[in-house]
From TrEMBL:
The keyword Transport does not apply. Belongs to the peptidase M1 family. It catalyses: Release of an N-terminal amino acid, Xaa-|-Yaa- from a peptide, amide or arylamide. Xaa is preferably Ala, but may be most amino acids including Pro (slow action). When a terminal hydrophobic residue is followed by a prolyl residue, the two may be released as an intact Xaa-Pro dipeptide. Binds 1 zinc ion per subunit. This is Aminopeptidase N. It is found in: Cytoplasm. One of its GO terms (molecular function) is alanyl aminopeptidase activity.
Length: 456
């Protein structure tokens, strides 16, 4: 029946998810969702490439029932569900490097997946749906190879109740309204890991953030491929009608934030950006590729709300376009996004990054110094010290090499690794190579690889 390695998990932080036996190149997801009953009927067509000879393969799928698995490229012998896995066996071995497609029908009442990070995945709101996939929530709503290094393109076709907007990653390419149901189709052309795939459903109106005087817009009908060089990034907010005024006020400087980050990090990597404002209070905002989700409680012009909005926007460069290949290196997402908060504070005329660094260092010096942020362990990978100490590491690098070299390095990093997967050793090697005379390990190693907090 094939070797046990066909289902082996490549990341020790998420040992129950992912497989090294194959990769998914494209997900074509067709979802029909009824809000009142929280009932999901799904079809997932996965285009895959085998990484070894396969007698069977395992997909991550949790809490939903598979009803049918077919293929036009291989002969499916059987399928069964086992401990959060969909196991598909083949009548004939699939050769190494072969391309195969699986057409999977499934259904059920999607629910969050509980784990050491709390509940993640598909979540019902008061009047709608939120999907928060990081790090292992994707299997709550579609069959997948759930690992951060597994990047693929996507097509989402979502049918739901009339009067509700479905928002997915990428660009809206069609909207078909019938009497009681509306179908929304999105294309996510740029490669994306499963944890960033999302569906948001709510009674949302769309407003433009580039021109606050414009009350409503329709997303451009094209299938991605970037935007015309030199044009501003199209920026929108999907908001409940009652929150439109508060959203315009809170997000009034968002276009300035985007401009500042493009200057620091290089061109925005996707065709557009969308902020979804849920009509619920959320504990924390979250990002997905091409969009972020905030709660109604984050619509505030004060620093605490604005830093969170900046943090999620920065993830479009650090986390989405450039993604860690393994969860132990999550500081490459969170440390960079945290430092972006300080950069926006500085660019907007408020507190400087240097002042933020000093106060943060003083606070961290009074906390336990037992966390190695370059490998914090699964339970602590979202610890605030990973975020803040990662930002301090970047500030130490900036201080050592100067602004021109530092921001040139960031722009080169995002350009060279755009839509790729990286590790901490990759970043350290890049720093040493890009900045001759800089020993990245000597400069950054104490911040990343030791528990004790280095001196400022």
């Amino acid at each position: 029946m094939g070797s046990s390695s066909e289902g082996s998990a490549p990341d020790p932080y998420t040992p129950g998810n992912g497989s090294t036996a194959y990769r998914v190149k494209h997900y074509d997801l067709t979802l029909d969702y009824k809000l009142a009953s929280n009932r999901l009927s799904g079809r997932a067509v996965l285009t895959m490439a085998a990484h070894r000879e396969l007698h069977q393969l395992e997909l991550d799928l949790s809490g939903l029932r598979t009803t049918k698995v077919t293929s036009d490229t291989v002969r499916v012998r059987s399928f069964k569900e086992r401990a959060g896995k969909l196991v598909v066996a083949f009548r004939d071995p699939v050769p190494d490097d072969a391309e195969l497609r699986l057409d999977i029908r499934y259904e059920g009442n999607p629910a969050p997946i509980s784990g050491i990070w709390g509940d993640v995945g598909w979540e019902e709101l008061t009047d709608g749906v939120l999907v928060a996939g990081q790090p292992t929530g994707a299997p709550s709503w579609f069959p997948c190879n759930d690992h951060p290094s597994g990047k693929a393109s996507y097509r989402f076709t979502v049918t739901t109740d009339a009067g509700y907007r479905a928002v997915c990653n990428g660009v809206l390419v069609s909207r078909i309204a019938k009497s009681s149901r509306t179908t929304w189709v999105y294309e996510q052309s740029e490669p994306m890991p499963t944890y960033l795939a999302t569906v948001q459903i709510g009674r949302y109106d769309l407003v433009a953030l580039n021109d606050p005087a414009q009350p409503a817009v329709h997303l451009p009908r094209h299938a991605g491929g970037g935007r015309e060089r030199g044009r501003p990034v199209p920026q929108y907010a999907a908001v409940p009608a009652a929150l439109a005024h508060a959203a315009k006020a809170s997000l009034g400087r968002h276009h300035e934030m985007m401009t500042a980050f493009e200057e620091c990090f290089g061109p925005y990597p996707f065709p557009q950006y969308l902020l979804v404002v849920a009509d619920d209070e959320l504990e924390i905002p979250l990002e997905a590729q091409t969009l972020s989700i905030i709660g109604r409680n984050h619509l505030d012009e004060g620093w605490e709300a604005q830093r969170l909005i900046a943090h999620e926007l920065a993830h479009q460069w650090f986390g989405n376009a450039v993604t860690t290949a393994r969860w132990q290196d999550i500081w490459l997402h969170e440390g960079f996004a945290c430092y972006a908060e300080w950069l926006w504070s500085e660019a907007s005329g408020a507190t400087t990054a240097e002042a933020h660094a000093r106060s943060t260092h003083q606070r961290l010096a009074g906390e336990p110094q037992d966390l190695v942020i370059g490998d914090p362990g699964a339970a602590d990978m979202f610890d605030d010290r990973v975020y803040k100490r990662g930002a301090l590491a970047l500030h130490a690098l900036r201080t050592a090499v100067g602004d021109d070299a530092f921001f040139g390095l960031l722009r080169s990093w995002t350009a060279e690794h755009r839509f790729g997967s990286v590790t901490t050793p990759d970043f350290l090697a890049f720093v040493t190579r890009t900045l001759p005379g800089t020993d990245a390990e000597a400069l950054l190693g104490p911040w990343l690889h030791t528990g004790a907090l280095p001196a400022p």
